[in-house]
Amino acid sequence: MTLTRSELELDYSLDRASIAAFAEHGFVKLKRVLSPATIAAYEEEITSKVIELNTQHLPLEERDTYGKAFLQVMNLWQDSEPVLEFVSSPRLARIAAQLLGVRSVRLYHDQALYKESGGGVTPWHADQYYWPFATDRCVTVWIPLQETPLEMGPLAFAAGSHAFEHGRDLPISDESERVLQAALAERDFPEVVEPYELGEVSYHLGWTFHHAAPNNTDVPRRVMTIIYVDAAMEIAPPANSFQESDLADWMPGNAAGEQISSPLNPVLYST
């Protein structure tokens, strides 16, 4: 990993237009953030860990909508030194801090999201429904580990929806797909769906509504994500059972009203 690790530590030149677009739309796509060589160097390890740690073994046709959307494996960094290198990248974390407009960011957790061949729709949702945070200063970087054409189900965003509060109480479900599809269209939030080049990534805020189409190719859509929070983020009282679980699982030892400070949430970048 030595040759590619240096890229993960180099600064990425983030222009003002990208920062402004992120603030306006709640997401931004950035080209050439990672080289094909860096992605190739880490993809094999990430994929092997997904296969090893995956607990979903039902056939696609026997799963619910959430289960058909993707295989989801979290905090791979705890099981692999190479994945730890990748997740700890100052390059990726610095972009997150710049977009959020904060001095430093912590790791919340990572998650691999592998949409199998034939995998179904990922319903409309906002990630922050699941997270007990006191502010909106949290962001996910979505890193495809291959070129991702439209037929593979790339992430699609409702531009500007991070300011839309309707539907924030909905978990990923058939209901969230139905209700939010109608509500977002009624309010004329443009749906932005584009293929991803190899090395292109996106960052989206926790309250930005997004979804993804099925994977209609014969290969898995392999994606690694990293969730960053303002290093000074205060934990909000959990608003649902999912937030209670997240507090226990991803911020062990912390409690509502405290600043995130658990060993699972190290600072990844600070000015």
TrEMBL record:
This is Ectoine hydroxylase-related dioxygenase, phytanoyl-CoA dioxygenase (PhyH) family. Transmembrane segments: none annotated. InterPro entries: Phytyl_CoA_dOase-like (IPR008775). It comes from the Bacteria. SUPFAM superfamilies: Clavaminate synthase-like (SSF51197). Gene3D superfamilies: q2cbj1_9rhob like domain (2.60.120.620). Pfam families: PhyH.
